[in-house]
Amino acid sequence: IPLEQAKRIAAYRAVDENFDVKTHKVVGVGSGTTVVYVAERLGEYVDKNTNFVCIPTGFQSKQLIVSNKLQLGSIEQYPEVDIAFDGADEVDESLQLIKGGGACLFQEKLVSSSAKKFIIVADSRKKSPKYLGYNWKKGVPIEVVPSSYVRVLADLQNKLQCKSASVREGGSAKAGPVVTDNSNFIIDADFGEIADPRKLHQDIKLLVGVVETGLFIDNAEKAYFGNSDGTVQIQQ
Ligand code: DER
């Protein structure tokens, strides 16, 4: 089956098996192309008796909430989230994640780490057979304060021995660096295989200028992977 259908099947299954419309009042909605189907499915739960609020993880996420006629709330109003759904760029065997492919990692981590339950939805390409960095070759996304990017690039190389690192450029969409929904830059840092993502996250987080890393440690509780044969694999 087509990739988009595999993603949809996984997302629908994740919502149907984990979202409880009676008890879950605050729902985090992530960013990217797979979570589109989460928002679609949540929209099908809305009726005159439901009152759950959805918390966005960036502008695209806000669009998903609005276009699916879901109630939009802010993380400031609802700092405690009952359940959050999001995509991932890679998932390792202990459910550690690389996220940030869509440059929304800061708000994604703010929402997912504020959630009692955090569920990942992805297609089977995102599941790593071993460690992070096995399939995802674009490096660890890192959100940095714009004025610090030269310093952070140097520290990544000199202090953390990363193989290569660069500021994410807008390409044909925008001259110059990608600017995140929080007015920051993204640096993608290639560390090759990441045997200890927790240690790497901590080391990167200490660098001056780093706002947040795309290494989501001990955050996800379950992951739903859509396979090309239409089946769904669940990791927990
Ligand atoms: O940027 C992100 O973290 C997104 O969630 C991304 O990792 C997943 O994007 P996809 O669902 O389009 O593959």
Automatic annotation (TrEMBL):
Catalytic activity reported: aldehydo-D-ribose 5-phosphate = D-ribulose 5-phosphate
Sorted UniProt keywords: Isomerase
One Pfam short name: Rib_5-P_isom_A
Pathway: Carbohydrate degradation; pentose phosphate pathway; D-ribose 5-phosphate from D-ribulose 5-phosphate (non-oxidative stage): step 1/1
GO CC field: cytoplasm
Signal as UniProt keyword: no
GO biological process: D-ribose metabolic process; pentose-phosphate shunt, non-oxidative branch
EC number: 5.3.1.6
GO molecular function, one term: ribose-5-phosphate isomerase activity
InterPro entries: NagB/RpiA_transferase-like (IPR037171), Ribose5P_isomerase_type_A (IPR004788)
UniProt cross-references to NCBIfam families, sorted A to Z: PRK00702.1 (NF001924), rpiA (TIGR00021)
Family assignment from sequence similarity: Belongs to the ribose 5-phosphate isomerase family.
PANTHER family in the record: RIBOSE-5-PHOSPHATE ISOMERASE (PTHR11934:SF0)
Identification of the protein by name: Ribose-5-phosphate isomerase
Organism field: Kluyveromyces dobzhanskii CBS 2104
